[in-house]
Amino acid sequence: MTEFLKSELNKVKRGPKRANYDVATLYAILDDAFLCHVGYIFEGKAIVIPTAYARKNDKIYIHGSLKNRMMLSILSAGEACVSVTLLDGLVLARSAFHHSANYRSVNVFGTVKKVDNPKEKMDALACILNHMVPGHWDNVRQPNDKEFNATLVLEISIDSASAKIRAEGVNDEVEDHKLPIWAGVVPIRQIAFEAISDKDLPEETEVPEAVLRYVENNR
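^ Pyridoxamine 5'-phosphate oxidase family protein, sequence as received from the core. Prediction below:
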C-alpha cells in the first residue's frame, strides 16, 4: 500500500488541496515528531491529552500508568485518533485575514490493544525512548519488575490516516500587493542546546554519545 484509502473518517475536507495520503510522507511526519495528542471520552466529556509516542512499521506505541484514564478509555473503546503537528513557519500577510502558518500534520485512526507479551512490551518501551533520543536506551537502567508491571503499553494500529501540509508563502489579495506593509514567512524549527548534566552525577560521568549526537544533529 502506497496510499491510505480515502474515507469519511480520514478525508480532509477543509483545504483539500493540502491533503496528502501517501504512506511514506505520513510516516516521515510521524518520525519527525515526538509528542502526539490523543482524543478520548471520559465520563461523557471530550478530552485531549499530549503524550510521547513512537512508530514501528504500521503501529504506534504509547505508555502510561495502569490507572491512566486516557489509556484506559481508549483501550475500552478499542479505537483511537492520534494527532501530530509540526510547526514549520509563521506566514505573516499584509492583511490580518490571510495570516497563516506552514505546518505538517497527521491524523491517525486505528484499533487499540494492550501489549501483554513481556518482550514486545519492553521492545515498545525501548522504541519510545529511542524515538526521543536515538540509541539512548542502551545508556539507561532498564525498568525493574515494579516499574515494568506498573506501566501500561498500548499499540495503536495505523488503520487509516491523512496528512495536511502547508509549505508556501503569503496568499494576499492582489489588490493588497501594493500596500506598504511587510509580508513574508518566519521559518520555525525546534532546536537542541548543549546538554546540562545533573548536579548529582558521580564525578567524571560523561554525556553519552547518543545525547551528544542528538544535540549535534538538532542544532
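The mean pLDDT is 96.
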